[in-house]
């Protein structure tokens, strides 16, 4: 990477095509120019990986699977229930929990932009913000689910929920079989980000 890049056009031309390598190249360039502090950058990355993100949502779901009283609270007042676990703040002021069952499969989209429960799931994935996902999920949810590898029985209804700036949703996936007696930490390890959006299932018990 050249030490001196004077314009954005030149910078673009010297960046590799692979997205991961491009990010690393940009990071290196910005650090060399003194535009970002690597220590601060590491702190931001740690925050989103370990303090804000799907791990938080997984803790909520694992608690709901393990504690019937908490589950009832989550369904009736998700905002308060997740706040009790320390998850609240911007992009998570108002949360509704949706339970998946054998009869109903819930799926979340934001048709206007990319409203998403950041304190629970972190930054929304690229596909969640795409025009295709936002438009097709409403028109043909089963086809979209199939593309994510989610095959549902014909008797299972699909409900699509549209997030807004005022209201965000958290899907409570069905608990995998073979997990009776598991600790919350074990259960949380099975819960994926996509399963809390409704575009995936939890991992199977090993």
What features would you describe in this structure?
The protein has 206 residues and is mainly α. The chain has two domains: 19-49, no CATH class; 52-197, Nitrile Hydratase, Chain A (Alpha-Beta Complex). It contains twelve helices and four strands, in the order ααααααββααααββαα. Helix 4 packs across helix 5, helix 5 (68-76) crosses helix 6 (78-84) and helix 9 (131-139) packs across helix 10. Mean pLDDT is 86; it is low at 1-16.
Write the layout of secondary structure elements.
Blueprint: H1 8-14, H2 19-32, H3 38-51, H4 54-66, H5 68-76, H6 78-84, E1 95-99, E2 104-109, H7 118-121, H8 126-129, H9 131-139, H10 141-147, E3 157-162, E4 168-172, H11 184-188, H12 193-197
Parallel strand pairs: 1-4, 2-3
Helix pairs in contact: 4-5, 5-6, 9-10
List key phrases describing it:
2 domains, Nitrile Hydratase, Chain A, two-stranded parallel ribbon, mainly alpha, 206 residues
